[in-house]
Inverse folding.
C-alpha cells in the first residue's frame, strides 16, 4: 500500500465525509435501517450515531481499509447496540444468505471496483423481507453534466481512491436484482459532476 492510500486518502475520506451537506444526505436514509444491519464501505463510522437505537439490534461495519476505519471517533461503548468491525470488501461477503434486515451504503457504491458482484452479494445476504438503504452520487441525467462526468472519470478515479463519477445507480441496482421502492435525486451544492445524488430504499428480488 502506497503512502497516498495509507495516509492521505484516509484523511481526505474522513474530512470530506464529515461535511454537513453529506451528513444531511445520510440522515435521509440511515435512521430508517432496522434490525441486524450491515453497512458496506463504512469509512470512519460516521453513520453510527445516526442509526435509530430503538430500531437497530446490531451493526456490522464492513470496511476494507483499516486506515480509514481507524479514523473513527465514535465511542462504540456509548452506543445502544453492538457494533462489529470487519475488514473485507463488499464483493465477497463472509455471511450466510438471508442474514440481514438492512444493508446500508452511503457514498460507497461509487468506489467498489466490481459493483455488480457486490450488489449480488448484498442481495444474497439480505433477508427476503430486508431493505437496502442507499445515499450515493452518480451519473447525472443532464447532458452537459454527464458529458463532463464521462470525460473526467478516468483521471478522477485515479486520484480519489477509485471513486467513479458516472455510475448509473438506479440502473445498476435494477440490473442486479433490486426493486427500487423509493428514490429521490438532487444536486448538492458544489461541483455538479460530483454532486448528483440518489437516495432511497431498494428491496431484493430473491428469484433473480
Ligand atoms: C467516500 S468513502 C465513504 C465512506 C462512508 N460510507 C461514509 O459515508 O462516510 C468510500 C468508501 O468505500 C470503501 N470501499 C472501497 N472499495 C470497497 C469495496 N470493494 N467494498 C467495500 N467498501 C469499499 C472505501 O474504503 C471508502 O471507505
Amino acid at each position: 500500500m502506497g503512502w497516498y492510500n495509507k495516509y492521505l486518502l484516509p484523511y481526505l475520506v474522513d474530512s470530506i465525509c464529515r461535511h454537513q451537506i453529506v451528513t444531511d444526505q445520510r440522515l435521509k436514509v440511515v435512521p430508517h435501517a432496522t434490525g441486524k444491519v450491515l453497512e458496506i464501505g463504512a469509512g470512519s463510522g460516521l453513520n453510527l450515531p445516526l442509526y435509530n437505537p430503538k430500531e437497530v439490534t446490531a451493526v456490522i461495519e464492513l470496511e476494507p481499509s483499516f486506515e480509514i476505519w481507524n479514523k473513527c471517533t465514535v465511542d462504540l461503548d456509548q452506543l445502544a447496540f453492538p457494533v462489529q468491525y470487519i475488514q473485507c470488501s463488499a464483493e465477497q461477503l463472509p455471511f450466510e444468505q438471508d442474514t440481514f434486515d438492512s444493508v446500508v451504503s452511503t457514498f460507497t457504491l461509487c468506489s467498489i471496483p466490481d459493483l455488480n458482484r457486490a450488489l449480488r452479494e448484498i442481495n444474497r445476504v439480505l433477508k427476503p423481507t430486508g431493505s437496502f438503504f442507499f445515499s450515493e452520487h452518480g451519473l447525472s441525467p443532464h447532458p452537459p453534466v454527464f458529458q463532463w462526468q464521462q470525460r473526467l472519470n478516468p483521471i478522477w478515479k485515479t486520484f480519489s481512491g477509485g471513486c467513479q463519477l458516472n455510475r448509473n445507480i438506479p440502473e445498476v441496482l435494477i440490473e442486479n436484482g433490486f426493486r427500487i421502492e423509493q428514490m429521490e435525486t438532487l444536486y448538492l451544492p458544489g461541483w455538479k459532476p460530483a454532486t448528483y445524488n440518489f437516495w432511497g430504499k431498494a428491496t431484493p428480488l430473491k428469484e433473480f
